[in-house]
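agent: user wants the full assembly modeled, not chains individually. Plan: 1) parse entity lines 2) check alphabet per entity 3) run joint structure prediction 4) return tokens. Steps 1-2 passed, two entities, 478 residues total. Proceeding.
--- entities ---
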Amino acid sequence: MVRKPRPRVTALLDRPLPAPPDRLRRGPFRAGAFRSALRSERLTSHAGLALAVAFGVCFLTGLLSHLIQHPPGWFWWPSRPVWLYRVTQGVHVATGLASVPLLGLKLWSVYPRLFAWPPARTVAHALERAGVAVLVAAGLFQVVSGVLNVGRWYGPMPFFFTAGHYWVAWLVIGALLVHVGAKLPAIRRELARKRGPEPAGARLSRRRLLTATGAAAGIVTLATVGQTLRPLRAVSLLAPRNPTDGPQGLAVNRTAAAAGIGDLAGYRLTVAGPGSSRVLDLAQLTALPQHTVDLPIACVEGWSAGATWTGVRLRDLVALVGADPDRAEVDVESLQPTGRYRRSTVEPPLTADPLTLIALRLNGDVLHPDHGYPARLIAPNRPGVLQTKWVGRLTVRSPR
Amino acid sequence: MRRALVALGVLVMAFAVAGALTDDDVRRFGVVAFLVGVLVWHDLLVMPLVIAVAAVVGRAFRRVARKRSERPRVRSGR
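--- prediction returned ---
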């Protein structure tokens, strides 16, 4: 019988690599260095499946948040329901936090493989291990940086969180797809297999370990989700933020002092349209028809709270300079001199929405300086970072 | 199926790297340093520490359980 020659690439991938000398096999590299009988491929597969679901949900909700903040031409985001972003971002942060124990269990279950001997048997094995290293590093990067961001502790992160977290999210998903592809036969086999006998002599069964990890994920969720889900606020002992803790009963991320807002005497709002412009002082703004709406502030860090806002409809200001409020796009510019979020764009669906205000009052009182006095944007279904405070200029544009 | 998953994964990873390299907001050295840092921190510090603490706690629990089982049981005379 004549054997069909193997393709060159396959032959290269399967080429054995030289094993390191045995005298280097010490410490955790020794056979039997890890003795826990609880580790098994089945446990790893179940933990991996739960983690893949959590990472998948986290990725999709995070991608949505990114698209809302940096909308490409094809993207469209509605203004209703007003609570939609509050829910998607709350789910993003909740699944991210619930991933912490799941990732811990998954990495613990495969930890001995880090010290496999020989470290790489073939080129393909070396590549697979490199892929796993990327997956683990990127997974840890996402969870650790996400937790640091929720806690607003940026010191340990030598990069701009939003950009780093976004691109590494793609890296995690890519590495996860490669990993699932590489391990698919084992995953299928272990998930289809009926539960085998528990390890002899172990005081803790694998099922109990999985249940305990699931319970830990549930407790983490319950203990933090109250920062956006009001009924659970009483049990949310680990919630990084209390959304009502701030001036006028509402939390603040960036204060007026931190934003460099100085003396606002002589405040004017400029509304620049395609055809004409208007400059309004605070008295003139207050004299325009005032409207009151109930809208949540939903922060990208996961906390959210409802509030009552009073002010001038953005569509009325657009009409004031002769533009069509049902089709206009508005650039909102803050008086803060610097900062990534000193300017935001209100897309036509939000400009047209009667709930979108240039707010002057919060919960019945004049805006506190930290909430954007004298005027701020408040619009439905929009991330908090885009609800521009200390508004000084509106530039109305016709849609592209 | 497996090849499709691996190929798609490699494409997505390439998209991530290309995106990070062309995004002016990404401090590339900082991101790479943090990637390596969390990997080393987890694999060489956190996990060995967790395993060591679990071993010590487990041993202590077993010792207490053994002592309890060896203790003679006193029954009420009534």
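agent: reporting back. The beta strands of chain A are 268-272, 277-281, 291-298, 304-313, 329-334, 343-346, 357-362, 365-366, 376-378, 391-397. The radius of gyration of chain A is 27 Å.
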